[in-house]
Amino acid sequence: MSLTRETFDFVADLVRRRSAIQLEPGKEYLVESRLLPLAREGGHSGVDAYVTSVRTGRREPDLVAVVEALTTNETSWFRDSTPFSALRTHMLPALRAERPVLDRLRVWSAACSTGQEPYSIAMTLAEILGPSTRTEIVATDLSDQVLNQAKEGRYSQLEVNRGLPAPMLVRHFRRSGADWQIAEELRRTITFQRHNLLDAPPLGPFDLVFLRNVLIYFDLATKRAILGRVHRVLRPGGFLVLGAAETTIGVDGDWERVPVARGSVYRPVHGGTAALPTPRTTATAPTFGVSRPAPTFPPATVNQGVSR
Amino acid sequence: MRALVIDDSRTMRRIVAHTLEELGFSTVQAGDGQEALDVLESGDQVDLACIDWNMPVMDGLTFVTQVRSRQEWRSITLMMVTTESEHGQIVRALAAGAHEYLIKPFTPDAIRDKLDLLGLLPLEEPV
User: What's phi and psi for A256, nearest 5 deg?
Assistant: First the structure.
């Protein structure tokens, strides 16, 4: 690895201060691979030279570019398909079973990157729910750059090849030159907004929160704080979906693991903060769809994620 | 799991077969649709066929139609792997009985993602 200690420390410190994402020693490869395109683009001999120029120049756009390069994930449609099949076979049936009329469904897709996750959710909802359910997806990310692409809903051939089922492609996309364009009716169901997970969450309540493959970047205290904020905006009967390698267990006791999708789905537990939940072992959908009393919510924290 | 890779380009067959082998498949190759039918007729038990569209002798769409007309081959998963990228062509292939459609050029990850969708990947994620 050719990165100097100074380069790594500067980048890690900048990214931590701007996004709270921790780049531990050992993540040098990540810094190098993500910043190399920017270094080349700027005509620098390598990542060290590029970072040195960013550090001495202190220009805001350069600093933002570095943070964005390190916090943006490559993402595919229906990434790790199990949460989407669980959405279809367990979560939506459970939500339907709990309410006499499911006339409105709100979803938060956090750290949505270039939009593949919220569009995948929208496609699944369109397939399962009829027109009598009004769906609203709030999709947030830290990076303006990725949000702009997400809003536009235009994807290259290589991007649509990544995990998008062909029947979904022909139903929801149209060719637009060399690219593919998402259908307007699907785009209309999604509101994109810039949001930092360290700030107050978007205005709830939500029935579903997708927070996948992002907690892994944070330290324990930050994970706990983020999960606490998600808990406040999630309806008592709602679901939280984490990444396959993530868990609330040992982090925050206010969650109960639902035995679907390889353990990446959780429901909020109310009033029992001390005990850590024991994972359930039986999976008979939708047994967790017990009816609950009408939910009450804390006063909404109005911060639409504009933190600049 | 066994996969039949059908493409008139030997290089392309090798790329697709190599990617599938990395994912734990054994593979058999054919240079056109007719050769591929011969492989199936010989009794080779195949779980997945990756099929190019434009080939001499018998094209991929005809192959798909032929396979779909035979009861004993019903369990074979059919995925087009082709440069044909028009909306209408994808619709045609799906209507003929293809399960998935991958447009060239693609990355090995794209094949993996499609197999995940088709339920053809070995379970390897942590519980």
Answer: -120, 130
